[in-house]
Amino acid sequence: MSVADGPTTVPPPAVPLRKNRDFWLLWTGVGISALGGSVTRVTYPLLMIWFGGSAVDAGLVGFAALLPLLLLQLPAGVFVDRWDRRRTMIVCDAVSMVSIGSVGVALLLGHLWLPHLLVVAFVEGSAGIFYRLAERAAVRAVVHTDQLATAMSRNEARSRGAGLLGQPLGSTLFALVHWAPFVVTAVGHLVALGNLVRIKKEFRVERRAGPNRLGAEITEGVAWLFRQRFLRSAVLLVASTNLLFQVLALTLTVTVKEHGGSPAVIGIIGAASGVGGLCGALSGSFFVRRMRPGTLMICTFAVWSLLMPMIGLTGNPVVLGALYSGMSFAGALINVMAGVYQVQVTPDEMQGRVGSVGSLVSSGTNSLGALAAGFLLASFGTGNTVLGVSAVMAAVTLAAVLNPAIRTAERVRIPDA
């Protein structure tokens, strides 16, 4: 597979990543923001299922949070390539802080209103799209090309660490007082905003001459990605797995409740999953440098196919924690690979658009997965739902094995850090 035109500029000679002030301000700020997102993700279904709601209500809130992935990905990519990326992230932190804070205030006053939660979930999800696209594009602006694999691996470790801490933190705060997770998340966005303000490096370069119309710019991004055989096949396959994991996420909450568990148990299982993901993220650059991307993807799918059906056979928190940990380890590896590959081969002035197209295809229908999860669990129960998900995962793995673009994709050559 040929690699597309590389970036138009090369960063200045590398300083050790540990001494790169702008990278660490970005890394910690985004980490704090991601921690808040992890806290709210675990809190929404707890709020619905434990206090006056149902699995269907939880599915509706999940649908609202993920719907922006379907509606806003493509225009967000265009605007991220047009706008100053640091300012975009600052605005997103501010919007998230206000919207999430409003839920904390409402709960503090004793109100729980489903339409309010739906609006806030949609707004937070929308801001998150712009935020993630801008941050991924910004990484290459603050680190040297030779350090890209290490930086992306640390970013994935940061995300997994946020999930590791966010699950038990969210459930524990919720158990103490229902409004606390939302207030803590709002404060976290304020801190992240302060970090971004302190960064000196610009997050973008001058764009090449090209279309300056929304439709034309979206088309350019779509056309570029779909000319890449591996990326095209990979995002379509990953889209299927993301739908399945939306079902499994709600399945865990229902399973724990059916077996007499509490929100704290979900937090412990989430922590175990986070440990697995963190280990996978920290070792991600090792695997990315030594394995072809298609081989890594097929191995990940195979691990998921083996572990998923076991979830439907147990309600033991220890076993569930081990299963989710293994799946998270494999998932972190594929995330590091995808991030390095996409950022490395995509021209800088198209980072936002290509990232948005990839995210739309791979995750845009996640909202439907969250919505379907509630109805599937209500209609078929946890065991049958998990078995159905597992059968689909096995079919996706077979499709990856049979796809020549996946099997033969060459590595993007990345120097050792």
UniProtKB/TrEMBL annotation:
Q: Which GO terms describe its molecular function?
A: transmembrane transporter activity
Question: What keywords are annotated for this sequence in UniProt?
Answer: Cell membrane, Membrane, Transmembrane, Transmembrane helix, Transport
Cellular component terms (Gene Ontology):
plasma membrane
Is this entry keyworded Cell inner membrane? Answer: no
Compartment annotation? Cell membrane
The membrane topology term of the UniProt record is: Multi-pass membrane protein
Domain Major facilitator superfamily (MFS) profile intervals: 22-409
Q: Which PROSITE patterns match?
A: MFS (PS50850)
Q: Which Pfam families match?
A: MFS_3
- Give the domain of life: Bacteria
Residues spanning the membrane: 24-52, 58-78, 90-114, 173-197, 234-252, 264-288, 295-315, 321-343, 355-380, 386-406
Report the main location listed first in the record.
membrane
Name the UniProt record assigns to this protein: Predicted arabinose efflux permease, MFS family
Q: Which organism is it from?
A: Saccharopolyspora shandongensis
